[in-house]
Write a structure and sequence with these properties.
Blueprint: H1 3-19, E1 23-26, E2 38-45, E3 51-60, E4 64-65, E5 70-71, E6 75-76, E7 81-87, E8 94-100, E9 107-115, E10 118-124
């Protein structure tokens, strides 16, 4: 193989590896109090292009993925928001995690611990 072909192949493969980079946004564990019964996680895309949500989850300590009661996140258009929710236990901490197909530099999010419609505590996704 000639040197120009090796260089071209290397540049092409590096381009694919950069394009395939996923981003993770998550919160630490959050406890809203003894009356908490719902966890809701929101995302907002402040960027100029769409972002694909590859996976999302609400996690109960120590490491149990909860079944979602609502999942409105898939492709997040520019300037739009989406959310997920799950019923939770009142005596443990919970976390939220989103995996995005590309950079989430312009994506913001928050986890809310609720009692009914009352927000007890929040944590920003990073």
């Amino acid at each position: 193989m000639t040197m120009p072909r090796v260089l071209a192949l290397t540049v092409l493969l590096l381009g694919f590896s950069v394009a395939a980079r996923a981003d993770v946004l998550a919160t630490g564990a959050l406890y809203g109090g003894p009356t908490q019964n719902t966890a809701v996680c929101y995302l907002f895309n402040a960027g100029s292009g769409p972002v694909t949500v590859v996976s999302n989850q609400i996690i109960r300590e120590p490491n149990l993925n909860l079944a979602l009661s609502f999942d409105g996140c898939s492709v997040l258009a520019a300037g739009s928001s989406c959310g997920i929710a799950a019923p939770i236990l009142n005596n443990v901490a919970h976390s939220c995690k989103f995996v995005l197909s590309q950079s989430g530099a312009d994506v913001r999010g928050v986890l809310e611990m609720r009692s009914g419609l009352t927000v007890l505590s929040t944590s920003d996704l990073r």
